Amino acid sequence: MPGFTDTSKYDNLTQVIKLKHETECYGLPYGVFGLVCWGLTLISIILTYVNIPLISPWRWGKKYKRQKPAMLFISAVTTIGPVIYTGIACRADWMSILMAIGQLTPWSLKIANDGYVIKVDDGLEGTYRAFGFTMTILLYIVGWLGLEMAFVDPKTNSVVVIVTMIGLVICLLCYTYYWALMHKCLHTCCSIVIFYILMTSQIVGSHIILALLNKNWSGIAPDGAGQASAIIFFIGKRLLFLDLDFN
After folding, report:
1. CA proximity to 137, closest of 54, 199, 92
2. Residue 10 reports pLDDT greater than 50
3. pLDDT tens-digit profile of 121-169?
4. Other beta carbons less than 10 A from residue 114's beta carbon
5. What domain of life does the UniProt record list for this protein's source (predicted)?
6. Could you give the CA distance from residue 144 to residue 209 in angstroms, rounded to a whole number?
7. Cα 110 to Cα 224: distance, rounded to the nearest angstrom
8. Which residues contact 132 (CB under 8 A, 6 or more apart)?
9. HSE value, Cβ hemisphere, 13 Å, CA-based, for 146
């Protein structure tokens, strides 16, 4: 129509620019860097079942042990700390905050994994499994919500869409967990690997989405503080599998 201007494409462009500006505060690995971090964690979990910890060669061939309290504290701080930094830096952007929290899923899954791979019965196996899997499911849902926010237009009434997606995700989680319990295979390497891939699918998605929004496939933050935070997080994820017990 004469005099009519279609502003929808400009609105979409504005939304993309706004998202790009907000995601620049993200202080965790994404893109190729994030995918490498994800893959190394997967390999580390697999190797614990054959007693070949990736970064603890002095423990190769020996029975797997849980981390000592001091090392557990250090690895937790270096993993959770960058997530807290990202939450503060991106305090106006819930999408980035939820995605960052979702990146803690491998940390909680590692705790659950310790409850199954340990050979010594010290009475803590059940606690590790219950806490680890509960946190894994919760963190997965949070991370998935963050990923969904990248696709939902905040100008529309998207409550129904979000609630529906949450319901579908929860159903998938419940079915997967129930199937594994009934087949008594949660303690096997194969089932843990499958569970890891399912529970961290939102992390892979967030790595790709953030790389597209920032047009930065390297996944390294543009500012110094963001770079330091991402590197610390990467190191923290490796420290989760470091055992300083030389005996």
Report:
1. 199
2. no
3. 566 667 777 788 888 888 888 888 888 777 765 555 555 566 567 767 7
4. 21
5. Eukaryota
6. 12
7. 29
8. 108, 109, 110, 111, 112, 113, 114, 115
9. 30
pTM for the predicted model, two decimal places: 0.79
Which of residues 150 and 57 earns the better pLDDT score?
57
- Can you state the angle between helices 31-48 and 224-239, rounded to 10 degrees? 10
**What is d(CA 147, CA 140) in angstroms, rounded to the nearest whole number?**
10
Percentage of the chain exceeding pLDDT 70:
72
Q: From CA 129, how far away is CA 56, in angstroms rounded?
A: 23
Residue with tokens 């946190």: 135
In the block, tokens 């500006």 appear at 21
Closest CA to 166 of 113, 202, 120: 202
Which residues, including other chains, have CB under 8 Å from residue 216's CB and lie 6 or more apart?
Answer: 31, 222
